[in-house]
Amino acid sequence: MIDFQQVSKIYPGGQMALEEVNFHLQKGEMAFLTGHSGAGKSTLLKLITVIERATTGRVAINGHDIAKISSKHVPYLRRNIGMIFQNHHLLMDRSVFDNVALPLVIEGFSHGEIRKRVAGALDMVGLYGKERHNPIMLSGGEQQRVGIARAIVNKPPLLLADEPTGNLDPKLSMDILRLFETFNDAGTSVLIATHDLGLIARMKYRTFTLKQGRMLGAQELHHGHATA
Ligand code: ADP
Ligand code: ADP
Predict the structure, then answer these.
(1) DSSP collapsed to 3 states, 135-149
(2) Ligand 2 mean position to 192 CA, how many Å?
(3) Which residue of 18, 43, 51, 80 sits with most ligand 2 atoms within 8 Å of its CB, as the best mutation to test the pocket?
(4) Mind giving me the DSSP string for the chain?
(5) pTM for this model (two decimals)
(6) What PANTHER family is this protein classified in (predicted)?
C-alpha cells in the first residue's frame, strides 16, 4: 500500500527531516509510527499526501510513484486517503453534519447519498443522532470522532492519523484506537503516528520508529513491554 525506498527529505534551509528511509505498509495492515518530537513523523505523512515531496528516493502508493505525479492529480490521490489530526481541524461554525459531509460535497455526491453516508459514518463512530449539533457543544473525544467520521465518510482504502489521541485521556485514547481497529478489520490500511508508547504497548501492531530522521525498523510489540 505504502512503499518508501531510500527516501530523504531536506527542507529549504537545509534541515534533514528524513534520511534514506525504507518503509513498507502492507495493504490491509495497521501499524504505528513513533519517535520523539522532530523525528520526522509528520514529514513522512506529508510525503504520502504530497503536502511535501521527497528530495531523493521513491515514494509509491499502490505501486504508483507519487514523487512524479503532477499537482493536478494530487486531489485525486488525496481522495483515497483519510487524514486525521490531533486538533481535528473541524469547522466550529458548522454542524456536525456539514463537517462530515464536506468531502462528499467536494466530490459532488447527490443530497440523498450524502445524507445516507453521513448517517452511516456517524453511526460507525458512535455519534448517531448528533448531526445537528455544533462541534463546540461536544467533548474532546466526541470532536475527535467527528474528525474520524469525516476521514472515513468516502470509504478511503488508507487512513493516516497524526497524533490522533494527543489531547485525550488514556481511556478515550484506547477507544479511538479500537475504532481504528474496526476500520482495519473491514480492510482499511491504517498508519498512526504517535509518541504515546504506553498506548502502543497495549496493542499487537507493528511499530516503525523514527530517530532524527532515520528509520530504526519495525518491531513487533507484545502486551506488557514496549521496545522503542
Ligand atoms: P515530528 O512529526 O516527528 O515531530 P516533523 O516531521 O514535524 O517531526 O519534523 C522533522 C524535522 O523537520 C524537525 O527538525 C523539524 O523542525 C523540521 N521541519 C518540519 N517541517 C519543516 C518545514 N516546513 N521547514 C523546515 N523544517 C521543517
Ligand atoms: P497542528 O495543527 O497543531 O500543527 P495537527 O495534529 O492538527 O497539529 O496537524 C499535524 C500537522 O500535519 C500540521 O503541521 C498540519 O499542518 C499538517 N498537515 C495538514 N494537512 C496535512 C495532510 N493532508 N497530510 C499531512 N500533514 C498535514
Answers:
(1) HHHCCHHHHHHHHHH
(2) 13
(3) 51
(4) -EEEEEEEEE-TTS-EEEEEEEEEE-TT-EEEEE-STTSSHHHHHHHHTTSS--SEEEEEETTEEGGG--GGGHHHHHHTEEEEETTTT--TTS-HHHHHHHHHHHHT--HHHHHHHHHHHHHHTT-TT-TTS-GGGS-HHHHHHHHHHHHHTT--SEEEEESTTTTS-HHHHHHHHHHHHHHHHTT-EEEEE---HHHHHTS-SEEEEEETTEEEEEEE-BTTB---
(5) 0.87
(6) CELL DIVISION ATP-BINDING PROTEIN FTSE (PTHR24220:SF470), IMPORT ATP-BINDING PROTEIN (PTHR24220)
Note the ligand closest to the C-alpha atom of 195. Answer: 1
What are residue 59's DSSP bridge partners? 4
Alpha-carbon 15 to chain mean position = 24
Cβ of 13 below 6 Å from ligand 1 = yes
The ipTM of this complex is: 0.73
Would you say the CB of residue 212 lies under 6 angstroms from ligand 1? Answer: no
Distance 12 CA to ligand 1 centre (A): 11
Residue 163 beta carbon below 6 angstroms from any ligand 1 atom: no
Our mutation pick for probing the ligand 1 site, out of 18, 42, 43, counting the most ligand atoms within 8 A of Cβ, is 43
